Amino acid sequence: MRNSRPMILMFPLICFLSSIILILCEPNTMGVCNEKEKHALLRFKQALSDPANRLSSWSMDEDCCRWEAVRCNNVTGRVVELQLGNPYVDSNYTNFMLGGEISPALLELEFLSYLDLSLNGFGGRPIPSFLGSMGRLRYLDLSFAGFGGVVPHQLGNLSTLRHLDLGYNSGLYVENLDWISHLSFLNYLDMDRVDLHKEVHWLESVSMIPSLSELHFSNCRLDRNMVSSLGYANFTSLTVLDISWNDFDQEIPNWLFNSTSLVALYLSDNQFKGQISESFGQLKYLESLYLHWNSFHGPIPTSIGNLSSLRYLVLGRNPLINGALPTSLGLLSNLEYLGAGGTSLIGNISEVHFTTLSKLKVLAIYETSLSFHLNSNWTPPFQLEHLDANSCKMGPKFPAWLKTQKSLSHLLLSSSGIVDTTPNWFWKWASSIQQIHLSDNQISGELSQVVLNNTIINLSSNRFSGQLPLQSSNVVVLNIANNSFSEQISPLICRKMNERSKLEVLDISNNALSGELSDCWMHWPSLTHKNLGSNSIGYPLKIQ
Length: 544
Fold this sequence. Notes:
Radius of gyration: 31 Å
Strand content: 15-25%
Oligomer: single chain
Structural class: mainly beta
Number of helices: 5
Protein backbone atom coordinates (compact mmCIF):
# COMPACT_ATOMS: atom_id res chain seq x y z
CA MET A 1 0.00 0.00 0.00
CA ARG A 2 2.95 2.27 0.74
CA ASN A 3 3.88 2.46 -3.04
CA SER A 4 0.36 2.82 -4.50
CA ARG A 5 0.17 6.63 -4.24
CA PRO A 6 3.26 7.35 -6.40
CA MET A 7 1.93 4.89 -9.01
CA ILE A 8 -1.46 6.65 -9.06
CA LEU A 9 0.24 10.01 -9.55
CA MET A 10 2.37 8.72 -12.40
CA PHE A 11 -0.52 7.17 -14.31
CA PRO A 12 -1.75 10.43 -15.95
CA LEU A 13 1.82 11.24 -17.00
CA ILE A 14 2.21 7.82 -18.65
CA CYS A 15 -1.08 8.30 -20.54
CA PHE A 16 -0.01 11.75 -21.71
CA LEU A 17 3.38 10.50 -22.98
CA SER A 18 1.71 7.57 -24.73
CA SER A 19 -0.67 9.87 -26.58
CA ILE A 20 2.21 12.10 -27.69
CA ILE A 21 4.10 9.06 -29.06
CA LEU A 22 1.02 7.92 -30.99
CA ILE A 23 0.59 11.37 -32.50
CA LEU A 24 4.20 11.54 -33.62
CA CYS A 25 4.20 8.05 -35.10
CA GLU A 26 0.85 8.02 -36.90
CA PRO A 27 0.40 10.45 -39.82
CA ASN A 28 -2.51 12.89 -39.87
CA THR A 29 -4.09 11.51 -36.68
CA MET A 30 -4.75 14.96 -35.23
CA GLY A 31 -6.93 16.04 -38.13
CA VAL A 32 -6.02 19.67 -37.49
CA CYS A 33 -5.97 21.42 -40.84
CA ASN A 34 -4.84 25.01 -41.07
CA GLU A 35 -7.86 26.95 -42.38
CA LYS A 36 -5.78 29.40 -44.39
CA GLU A 37 -4.02 26.54 -46.13
CA LYS A 38 -7.31 24.71 -46.77
CA HIS A 39 -8.69 27.74 -48.61
CA ALA A 40 -5.41 28.10 -50.52
CA LEU A 41 -5.61 24.49 -51.66
CA LEU A 42 -9.22 24.92 -52.77
CA ARG A 43 -8.23 27.94 -54.88
CA PHE A 44 -5.35 25.88 -56.30
CA LYS A 45 -7.81 23.10 -57.17
CA GLN A 46 -10.24 25.55 -58.78
CA ALA A 47 -7.59 26.66 -61.28
CA LEU A 48 -6.84 23.05 -62.31
CA SER A 49 -8.69 20.84 -64.74
CA ASP A 50 -9.38 17.41 -63.28
CA PRO A 51 -11.41 15.33 -65.76
CA ALA A 52 -11.03 12.12 -63.75
CA ASN A 53 -12.07 13.86 -60.50
CA ARG A 54 -8.87 12.77 -58.77
CA LEU A 55 -9.26 15.58 -56.22
CA SER A 56 -12.86 14.76 -55.29
CA SER A 57 -11.91 14.51 -51.60
CA TRP A 58 -10.82 18.16 -51.58
CA SER A 59 -13.88 19.82 -50.04
CA MET A 60 -14.69 22.27 -47.24
CA ASP A 61 -16.37 19.49 -45.29
CA GLU A 62 -13.23 17.40 -44.94
CA ASP A 63 -10.02 17.95 -42.99
CA CYS A 64 -7.47 18.93 -45.66
CA CYS A 65 -4.87 16.74 -43.96
CA ARG A 66 -7.01 13.76 -44.98
CA TRP A 67 -7.43 14.81 -48.60
CA GLU A 68 -6.03 12.68 -51.38
CA ALA A 69 -2.38 13.56 -52.18
CA VAL A 70 -2.02 15.96 -49.22
CA ARG A 71 0.37 15.26 -46.35
CA CYS A 72 0.54 17.38 -43.22
CA ASN A 73 2.96 17.71 -40.35
CA ASN A 74 1.76 15.30 -37.65
CA VAL A 75 1.97 17.88 -34.88
CA THR A 76 1.21 21.26 -36.46
CA GLY A 77 -1.21 20.19 -39.18
CA ARG A 78 0.57 22.41 -41.72
CA VAL A 79 0.72 21.08 -45.29
CA VAL A 80 4.20 19.75 -46.11
CA GLU A 81 3.64 17.56 -49.19
CA LEU A 82 1.51 17.64 -52.35
CA GLN A 83 1.85 14.32 -54.17
CA LEU A 84 -0.05 15.19 -57.34
CA GLY A 85 1.93 13.10 -59.78
CA ASN A 86 -0.33 10.99 -62.00
CA PRO A 87 -0.56 7.61 -60.23
CA TYR A 88 -1.75 5.83 -63.37
CA VAL A 89 1.10 4.79 -65.65
CA ASP A 90 -0.74 2.34 -67.93
CA SER A 91 -2.01 3.11 -71.44
CA ASN A 92 -4.94 5.11 -70.05
CA TYR A 93 -2.85 7.49 -67.96
CA THR A 94 -3.80 10.48 -70.14
CA ASN A 95 -7.38 10.19 -68.89
CA PHE A 96 -6.18 10.96 -65.36
CA MET A 97 -3.99 13.96 -66.10
CA LEU A 98 -4.40 17.20 -64.22
CA GLY A 99 -4.16 20.33 -66.33
CA GLY A 100 -5.12 23.98 -66.33
CA GLU A 101 -3.27 26.68 -64.40
CA ILE A 102 -0.85 26.45 -61.47
CA SER A 103 -2.32 28.97 -59.03
CA PRO A 104 -0.05 31.22 -56.94
CA ALA A 105 -2.24 30.16 -54.03
CA LEU A 106 0.54 27.62 -53.48
CA LEU A 107 2.60 30.43 -51.99
CA GLU A 108 0.33 30.35 -48.93
CA LEU A 109 1.59 26.85 -48.11
CA GLU A 110 4.51 28.24 -46.14
CA PHE A 111 5.84 24.86 -44.98
CA LEU A 112 5.52 22.95 -48.27
CA SER A 113 8.70 20.92 -48.80
CA TYR A 114 7.56 18.38 -51.41
CA LEU A 115 5.74 19.14 -54.68
CA ASP A 116 5.15 16.50 -57.35
CA LEU A 117 3.19 17.45 -60.50
CA SER A 118 4.70 14.79 -62.79
CA LEU A 119 2.89 12.89 -65.56
CA ASN A 120 0.19 15.51 -65.99
CA GLY A 121 -0.77 17.71 -68.95
CA PHE A 122 -0.30 21.46 -68.65
CA GLY A 123 -0.46 22.04 -72.39
CA GLY A 124 2.86 23.82 -72.95
CA ARG A 125 2.28 26.41 -70.22
CA PRO A 126 5.45 27.84 -68.70
CA ILE A 127 6.72 26.73 -65.32
CA PRO A 128 5.46 29.41 -62.89
CA SER A 129 8.32 31.62 -61.79
CA PHE A 130 6.69 32.03 -58.37
CA LEU A 131 7.77 28.48 -57.52
CA GLY A 132 11.18 30.04 -56.90
CA SER A 133 9.68 31.82 -53.88
CA MET A 134 8.70 28.59 -52.11
CA GLY A 135 11.82 28.62 -50.01
CA ARG A 136 11.18 25.44 -48.01
CA LEU A 137 10.94 23.15 -51.05
CA ARG A 138 13.31 20.20 -50.89
CA TYR A 139 11.69 18.07 -53.62
CA LEU A 140 10.28 19.41 -56.93
CA ASP A 141 9.19 17.03 -59.70
CA LEU A 142 7.71 18.63 -62.84
CA SER A 143 8.71 15.83 -65.25
CA PHE A 144 6.43 14.57 -68.06
CA ALA A 145 3.96 17.34 -67.22
CA GLY A 146 3.66 19.21 -70.51
CA PHE A 147 5.40 22.42 -69.43
CA GLY A 148 7.02 24.58 -72.12
CA GLY A 149 8.99 27.77 -72.59
CA VAL A 150 12.02 29.03 -70.71
CA VAL A 151 12.96 27.43 -67.39
CA PRO A 152 12.61 30.26 -64.84
CA HIS A 153 15.91 31.29 -63.30
CA GLN A 154 14.00 31.97 -60.06
CA LEU A 155 14.29 28.25 -59.31
CA GLY A 156 17.82 29.11 -58.27
CA ASN A 157 16.37 30.73 -55.15
CA LEU A 158 15.33 27.32 -53.76
CA SER A 159 18.42 27.08 -51.61
CA THR A 160 17.25 23.99 -49.66
CA LEU A 161 16.26 21.96 -52.76
CA ARG A 162 17.56 18.37 -52.86
CA HIS A 163 15.66 16.96 -55.87
CA LEU A 164 14.81 18.78 -59.13
CA ASP A 165 13.26 16.92 -62.08
CA LEU A 166 12.26 18.90 -65.20
CA GLY A 167 12.70 16.05 -67.68
CA TYR A 168 10.54 15.16 -70.68
CA ASN A 169 8.34 18.21 -71.06
CA SER A 170 7.06 20.09 -74.11
CA GLY A 171 9.79 22.35 -75.41
CA LEU A 172 11.48 23.59 -72.25
CA TYR A 173 14.73 25.46 -72.80
CA VAL A 174 17.24 27.51 -70.81
CA GLU A 175 19.04 30.73 -71.70
CA ASN A 176 21.80 29.96 -69.18
CA LEU A 177 22.35 27.76 -66.16
CA ASP A 178 24.11 30.17 -63.82
CA TRP A 179 21.24 29.86 -61.37
CA ILE A 180 21.73 26.12 -60.93
CA SER A 181 24.99 26.66 -59.02
CA HIS A 182 23.04 28.33 -56.20
CA LEU A 183 21.36 25.00 -55.35
CA SER A 184 24.23 23.89 -53.19
CA PHE A 185 22.33 21.05 -51.47
CA LEU A 186 21.00 19.48 -54.68
CA ASN A 187 21.43 15.70 -54.90
CA TYR A 188 19.37 14.90 -58.00
CA LEU A 189 19.08 16.97 -61.21
CA ASP A 190 17.14 15.74 -64.24
CA MET A 191 16.77 18.01 -67.29
CA ASP A 192 16.32 15.28 -69.94
CA ARG A 193 15.01 16.80 -73.21
CA VAL A 194 15.41 20.37 -71.96
CA ASP A 195 17.11 22.36 -74.73
CA LEU A 196 20.51 23.45 -73.37
CA HIS A 197 22.28 24.22 -76.63
CA LYS A 198 22.57 27.97 -75.82
CA GLU A 199 24.39 27.25 -72.55
CA VAL A 200 28.11 26.89 -73.30
CA HIS A 201 29.23 26.73 -69.67
CA TRP A 202 26.74 24.15 -68.39
CA LEU A 203 29.48 21.93 -67.01
CA GLU A 204 31.06 24.60 -64.84
CA SER A 205 27.65 25.58 -63.43
CA VAL A 206 26.67 22.02 -62.59
CA SER A 207 30.05 21.03 -61.15
CA MET A 208 29.74 23.78 -58.56
CA ILE A 209 27.09 21.72 -56.76
CA PRO A 210 29.22 19.72 -54.30
CA SER A 211 26.48 17.33 -53.17
CA LEU A 212 25.22 16.34 -56.64
CA SER A 213 24.75 12.59 -56.88
CA GLU A 214 22.70 12.14 -60.08
CA LEU A 215 22.87 14.24 -63.25
CA HIS A 216 20.53 13.48 -66.17
CA PHE A 217 21.14 15.64 -69.28
CA SER A 218 19.97 13.23 -71.98
CA ASN A 219 18.75 14.59 -75.33
CA CYS A 220 19.55 18.23 -74.44
CA ARG A 221 21.16 19.28 -77.76
CA LEU A 222 24.58 19.51 -76.14
CA ASP A 223 27.20 19.51 -78.90
CA ARG A 224 30.78 20.23 -79.90
CA ASN A 225 30.43 23.80 -78.64
CA MET A 226 31.04 22.28 -75.22
CA VAL A 227 34.68 21.40 -75.97
CA SER A 228 36.13 24.26 -73.93
CA SER A 229 33.58 23.71 -71.20
CA LEU A 230 34.54 20.07 -70.86
CA GLY A 231 38.01 20.96 -69.69
CA TYR A 232 37.02 21.08 -66.05
CA ALA A 233 34.61 19.35 -63.69
CA ASN A 234 34.55 18.33 -60.08
CA PHE A 235 32.06 15.55 -59.48
CA THR A 236 33.38 13.82 -56.38
CA SER A 237 29.88 12.80 -55.21
CA LEU A 238 28.43 11.88 -58.61
CA THR A 239 27.07 8.33 -58.87
CA VAL A 240 24.94 8.63 -62.05
CA LEU A 241 25.85 10.64 -65.16
CA ASP A 242 23.58 10.50 -68.20
CA ILE A 243 24.54 12.67 -71.19
CA SER A 244 23.23 10.25 -73.83
CA TRP A 245 21.43 11.33 -77.01
CA ASN A 246 23.44 14.50 -77.53
CA ASP A 247 25.92 15.53 -80.23
CA PHE A 248 29.33 15.34 -78.58
CA ASP A 249 31.93 14.59 -81.26
CA GLN A 250 35.13 14.53 -79.24
CA GLU A 251 37.14 12.12 -77.14
CA ILE A 252 35.93 11.37 -73.64
CA PRO A 253 37.36 14.12 -71.41
CA ASN A 254 39.88 13.14 -68.75
CA TRP A 255 37.89 14.72 -65.92
CA LEU A 256 35.38 11.91 -66.24
CA PHE A 257 37.86 9.36 -64.89
CA ASN A 258 38.28 11.40 -61.71
CA SER A 259 34.60 10.82 -60.92
CA THR A 260 35.46 7.64 -59.08
CA SER A 261 32.11 7.37 -57.28
CA LEU A 262 30.25 6.69 -60.53
CA VAL A 263 27.87 3.75 -60.48
CA ALA A 264 26.11 4.37 -63.82
CA LEU A 265 27.50 6.13 -66.91
CA TYR A 266 25.41 6.75 -70.03
CA LEU A 267 27.32 8.17 -73.00
CA SER A 268 25.38 6.40 -75.75
CA ASP A 269 23.90 7.90 -78.93
CA ASN A 270 26.50 10.62 -79.39
CA GLN A 271 29.48 10.93 -81.70
CA PHE A 272 32.23 10.36 -79.16
CA LYS A 273 35.42 9.26 -80.86
CA GLY A 274 38.89 8.04 -80.04
CA GLN A 275 39.79 4.86 -78.23
CA ILE A 276 37.92 3.62 -75.19
CA SER A 277 40.40 4.50 -72.49
CA GLU A 278 42.05 2.01 -70.16
CA SER A 279 41.22 4.62 -67.48
CA PHE A 280 37.71 3.17 -67.31
CA GLY A 281 39.27 0.54 -65.07
CA GLN A 282 39.60 3.22 -62.36
CA LEU A 283 35.81 3.52 -61.98
CA LYS A 284 35.69 0.61 -59.57
CA TYR A 285 32.09 1.12 -58.43
CA LEU A 286 30.67 1.16 -61.95
CA GLU A 287 27.63 -1.08 -62.47
CA SER A 288 26.30 0.26 -65.79
CA LEU A 289 28.42 1.42 -68.74
CA TYR A 290 26.56 2.43 -71.91
CA LEU A 291 28.81 3.49 -74.81
CA HIS A 292 26.77 2.23 -77.80
CA TRP A 293 26.01 4.22 -80.97
CA ASN A 294 29.19 6.30 -81.01
CA SER A 295 32.32 6.47 -83.16
CA PHE A 296 34.89 4.84 -80.88
CA HIS A 297 37.67 2.90 -82.52
CA GLY A 298 40.35 0.44 -81.46
CA PRO A 299 40.18 -2.44 -78.99
CA ILE A 300 38.04 -2.91 -75.90
CA PRO A 301 40.34 -2.09 -72.97
CA THR A 302 41.35 -5.07 -70.85
CA SER A 303 41.01 -2.91 -67.73
CA ILE A 304 37.23 -3.27 -67.95
CA GLY A 305 37.82 -6.69 -66.42
CA ASN A 306 38.71 -4.84 -63.18
CA LEU A 307 35.16 -3.52 -62.80
CA SER A 308 34.00 -6.25 -60.46
CA SER A 309 30.58 -4.62 -59.86
CA LEU A 310 29.73 -4.18 -63.55
CA ARG A 311 26.28 -5.48 -64.51
CA TYR A 312 25.62 -3.84 -67.88
CA LEU A 313 28.32 -3.39 -70.53
CA VAL A 314 26.88 -2.03 -73.79
CA LEU A 315 29.38 -1.22 -76.56
CA GLY A 316 27.35 -2.06 -79.69
CA ARG A 317 27.00 -0.02 -82.87
CA ASN A 318 30.53 1.32 -82.77
CA PRO A 319 31.61 -0.05 -86.15
CA LEU A 320 35.29 0.88 -85.68
CA ILE A 321 35.78 -1.00 -82.39
CA ASN A 322 38.06 -3.86 -83.41
CA GLY A 323 40.43 -6.47 -82.11
CA ALA A 324 39.63 -9.49 -80.02
CA LEU A 325 37.11 -9.73 -77.22
CA PRO A 326 39.34 -9.46 -74.14
CA THR A 327 39.40 -12.56 -71.96
CA SER A 328 39.38 -10.28 -68.90
CA LEU A 329 35.63 -9.89 -69.45
CA GLY A 330 35.34 -13.40 -68.07
CA LEU A 331 36.19 -11.96 -64.64
CA LEU A 332 33.01 -9.84 -64.47
CA SER A 333 31.11 -12.10 -62.10
CA ASN A 334 28.18 -9.68 -61.77
CA LEU A 335 27.71 -9.08 -65.49
CA GLU A 336 24.11 -9.50 -66.69
CA TYR A 337 24.21 -7.81 -70.10
CA LEU A 338 27.06 -7.94 -72.61
CA GLY A 339 26.39 -6.01 -75.82
CA ALA A 340 29.12 -5.77 -78.45
CA GLY A 341 27.15 -6.22 -81.68
CA GLY A 342 27.62 -4.07 -84.74
CA THR A 343 31.36 -3.74 -84.21
CA SER A 344 34.46 -4.98 -86.06
CA LEU A 345 35.49 -7.40 -83.33
CA ILE A 346 37.32 -10.45 -84.62
CA GLY A 347 38.77 -13.63 -83.22
CA ASN A 348 37.64 -16.58 -81.15
CA ILE A 349 35.27 -16.80 -78.21
CA SER A 350 36.16 -19.59 -75.80
CA GLU A 351 35.12 -20.84 -72.39
CA VAL A 352 37.62 -18.40 -70.81
CA HIS A 353 35.43 -15.47 -71.85
CA PHE A 354 32.61 -16.81 -69.67
CA THR A 355 34.57 -18.18 -66.72
CA THR A 356 32.69 -16.38 -63.92
CA LEU A 357 29.69 -14.99 -65.84
CA SER A 358 27.09 -16.94 -63.85
CA LYS A 359 24.65 -13.99 -63.86
CA LEU A 360 24.74 -13.30 -67.61
CA LYS A 361 21.23 -12.98 -69.09
CA VAL A 362 21.78 -11.13 -72.38
CA LEU A 363 24.55 -11.83 -74.89
CA ALA A 364 24.38 -9.59 -77.98
CA ILE A 365 27.36 -10.02 -80.32
CA TYR A 366 25.52 -9.83 -83.66
CA GLU A 367 27.18 -8.57 -86.85
CA THR A 368 30.73 -9.18 -85.77
CA SER A 369 33.50 -11.46 -87.05
CA LEU A 370 33.69 -13.36 -83.79
CA SER A 371 33.76 -17.18 -83.89
CA PHE A 372 32.64 -19.53 -81.14
CA HIS A 373 35.27 -22.16 -80.34
CA LEU A 374 33.82 -24.20 -77.49
CA ASN A 375 34.16 -27.80 -76.40
CA SER A 376 31.18 -29.89 -77.51
CA ASN A 377 30.50 -30.91 -73.90
CA TRP A 378 30.81 -27.38 -72.46
CA THR A 379 28.24 -26.40 -69.85
CA PRO A 380 27.91 -22.62 -69.50
CA PRO A 381 27.83 -21.08 -66.01
CA PHE A 382 24.90 -18.83 -67.03
CA GLN A 383 21.23 -19.08 -67.99
CA LEU A 384 20.60 -16.71 -70.88
CA GLU A 385 17.30 -14.97 -71.59
CA HIS A 386 18.37 -13.36 -74.86
CA LEU A 387 21.02 -14.58 -77.31
CA ASP A 388 21.68 -12.51 -80.44
CA ALA A 389 24.55 -13.94 -82.47
CA ASN A 390 23.25 -13.13 -85.96
CA SER A 391 26.13 -12.98 -88.46
CA CYS A 392 28.52 -14.32 -85.86
CA LYS A 393 30.09 -17.71 -86.57
CA MET A 394 28.47 -20.32 -84.36
CA GLY A 395 28.79 -23.38 -86.65
CA PRO A 396 29.39 -25.53 -88.49
CA LYS A 397 27.95 -27.86 -85.85
CA PHE A 398 24.70 -27.01 -84.14
CA PRO A 399 25.70 -25.59 -80.72
CA ALA A 400 25.02 -28.38 -78.22
CA TRP A 401 25.41 -26.08 -75.21
CA LEU A 402 22.11 -24.40 -76.06
CA LYS A 403 20.16 -27.31 -74.55
CA THR A 404 21.43 -26.30 -71.10
CA GLN A 405 19.62 -22.94 -71.40
CA LYS A 406 16.18 -23.11 -69.77
CA SER A 407 15.22 -19.41 -69.71
CA LEU A 408 15.70 -18.26 -73.31
CA SER A 409 13.00 -16.05 -74.79
CA HIS A 410 14.92 -14.84 -77.88
CA LEU A 411 17.26 -17.01 -79.99
CA LEU A 412 18.83 -15.20 -82.96
CA LEU A 413 21.35 -17.27 -84.93
CA SER A 414 20.73 -16.16 -88.51
CA SER A 415 23.77 -16.27 -90.84
CA SER A 416 25.81 -18.01 -88.15
CA GLY A 417 27.49 -20.60 -90.37
CA ILE A 418 25.58 -23.66 -89.11
CA VAL A 419 25.78 -26.60 -91.54
CA ASP A 420 24.06 -29.37 -89.65
CA THR A 421 20.82 -31.19 -88.94
CA THR A 422 18.69 -29.95 -86.08
CA PRO A 423 19.32 -32.29 -83.15
CA ASN A 424 16.49 -34.44 -81.78
CA TRP A 425 16.20 -32.37 -78.60
CA PHE A 426 15.92 -29.00 -80.31
CA TRP A 427 12.23 -28.48 -81.14
CA LYS A 428 10.86 -29.66 -77.83
CA TRP A 429 13.48 -27.56 -76.04
CA ALA A 430 12.63 -24.53 -78.20
CA SER A 431 8.84 -24.70 -77.75
CA SER A 432 8.79 -22.05 -75.00
CA ILE A 433 11.04 -19.53 -76.80
CA GLN A 434 9.18 -16.42 -78.04
CA GLN A 435 11.35 -15.65 -81.07
CA ILE A 436 13.53 -18.01 -83.12
CA HIS A 437 15.63 -16.73 -86.02
CA LEU A 438 17.72 -19.39 -87.81
CA SER A 439 17.58 -18.01 -91.35
CA ASP A 440 20.43 -18.01 -93.88
CA ASN A 441 22.22 -21.08 -92.62
CA GLN A 442 22.43 -24.60 -94.06
CA ILE A 443 20.32 -26.34 -91.46
CA SER A 444 18.51 -29.47 -92.56
CA GLY A 445 15.89 -31.73 -91.08
CA GLU A 446 12.34 -33.03 -91.38
CA LEU A 447 9.70 -31.05 -89.48
CA SER A 448 6.47 -32.96 -90.23
CA GLN A 449 6.16 -34.07 -86.59
CA VAL A 450 7.10 -30.69 -85.16
CA VAL A 451 4.47 -28.33 -83.70
CA LEU A 452 5.83 -24.79 -83.82
CA ASN A 453 4.74 -22.80 -80.76
CA ASN A 454 6.83 -19.63 -81.00
CA THR A 455 5.50 -16.12 -81.57
CA ILE A 456 7.99 -15.34 -84.35
CA ILE A 457 9.77 -18.06 -86.34
CA ASN A 458 12.18 -17.42 -89.20
CA LEU A 459 13.65 -20.56 -90.74
CA SER A 460 14.04 -19.14 -94.24
CA SER A 461 16.96 -19.93 -96.58
CA ASN A 462 17.95 -23.28 -95.11
CA ARG A 463 17.67 -26.94 -96.23
CA PHE A 464 14.58 -28.10 -94.40
CA SER A 465 12.58 -30.66 -96.37
CA GLY A 466 9.57 -32.96 -96.29
CA GLN A 467 6.10 -32.00 -95.12
CA LEU A 468 5.35 -28.61 -93.62
CA PRO A 469 5.47 -28.37 -89.83
CA LEU A 470 2.34 -27.94 -87.76
CA GLN A 471 1.84 -24.81 -85.71
CA SER A 472 -0.04 -23.76 -82.63
CA SER A 473 -2.38 -20.79 -82.39
CA ASN A 474 0.40 -18.79 -80.70
CA VAL A 475 2.38 -18.23 -83.92
CA VAL A 476 2.18 -14.65 -85.24
CA VAL A 477 4.96 -14.64 -87.87
CA LEU A 478 6.07 -17.76 -89.78
CA ASN A 479 8.76 -17.52 -92.47
CA ILE A 480 9.93 -20.80 -93.98
CA ALA A 481 10.69 -19.49 -97.47
CA ASN A 482 13.60 -20.74 -99.58
CA ASN A 483 13.73 -24.30 -98.28
CA SER A 484 12.88 -27.67 -99.79
CA PHE A 485 9.49 -28.35 -98.22
CA SER A 486 7.33 -30.49 -100.49
CA GLU A 487 4.00 -32.33 -100.70
CA GLN A 488 0.60 -30.81 -100.02
CA ILE A 489 -0.08 -27.37 -98.53
CA SER A 490 -3.47 -28.36 -97.11
CA PRO A 491 -2.19 -29.86 -93.81
CA LEU A 492 -0.82 -26.43 -92.94
CA ILE A 493 -3.80 -24.25 -93.81
CA CYS A 494 -6.69 -26.64 -93.17
CA ARG A 495 -5.73 -27.96 -89.75
CA LYS A 496 -8.33 -26.81 -87.25
CA MET A 497 -7.14 -25.41 -83.94
CA ASN A 498 -8.80 -25.35 -80.58
CA GLU A 499 -8.10 -21.61 -80.28
CA ARG A 500 -8.31 -18.71 -82.72
CA SER A 501 -5.11 -18.41 -84.75
CA LYS A 502 -2.98 -15.30 -84.21
CA LEU A 503 -1.01 -15.73 -87.45
CA GLU A 504 -0.47 -12.37 -89.20
CA VAL A 505 2.46 -13.05 -91.54
CA LEU A 506 3.06 -16.23 -93.55
CA ASP A 507 5.85 -16.73 -96.08
CA ILE A 508 6.22 -20.19 -97.63
CA SER A 509 7.54 -19.02 -100.99
CA ASN A 510 10.28 -20.77 -102.97
CA ASN A 511 9.62 -24.32 -101.84
CA ALA A 512 8.27 -27.35 -103.71
CA LEU A 513 4.75 -27.32 -102.32
CA SER A 514 1.71 -28.46 -104.25
CA GLY A 515 -2.05 -28.71 -103.85
CA GLU A 516 -4.88 -26.26 -104.13
CA LEU A 517 -5.95 -23.45 -101.85
CA SER A 518 -9.44 -23.70 -100.47
CA ASP A 519 -11.80 -22.02 -98.08
CA CYS A 520 -9.51 -23.05 -95.24
CA TRP A 521 -8.28 -19.46 -95.12
CA MET A 522 -11.30 -18.78 -92.90
CA HIS A 523 -9.28 -20.40 -90.10
CA TRP A 524 -6.79 -17.51 -90.36
CA PRO A 525 -8.75 -14.35 -89.51
CA SER A 526 -5.65 -12.36 -88.46
CA LEU A 527 -3.59 -13.10 -91.57
CA THR A 528 -2.65 -9.82 -93.29
CA HIS A 529 0.48 -10.72 -95.28
CA LYS A 530 1.12 -13.96 -97.15
CA ASN A 531 3.60 -15.02 -99.79
CA LEU A 532 3.03 -18.40 -101.43
CA GLY A 533 4.98 -17.71 -104.63
CA SER A 534 7.31 -20.05 -106.52
CA ASN A 535 5.45 -23.23 -105.54
CA SER A 536 3.06 -25.46 -107.48
CA ILE A 537 -0.08 -24.27 -105.73
CA GLY A 538 -3.42 -23.91 -107.51
CA TYR A 539 -5.68 -20.91 -106.90
CA PRO A 540 -9.44 -21.51 -107.18
CA LEU A 541 -11.16 -18.65 -108.96
CA LYS A 542 -13.23 -17.59 -105.96
CA ILE A 543 -10.22 -16.78 -103.76
CA GLN A 544 -7.97 -15.21 -106.36
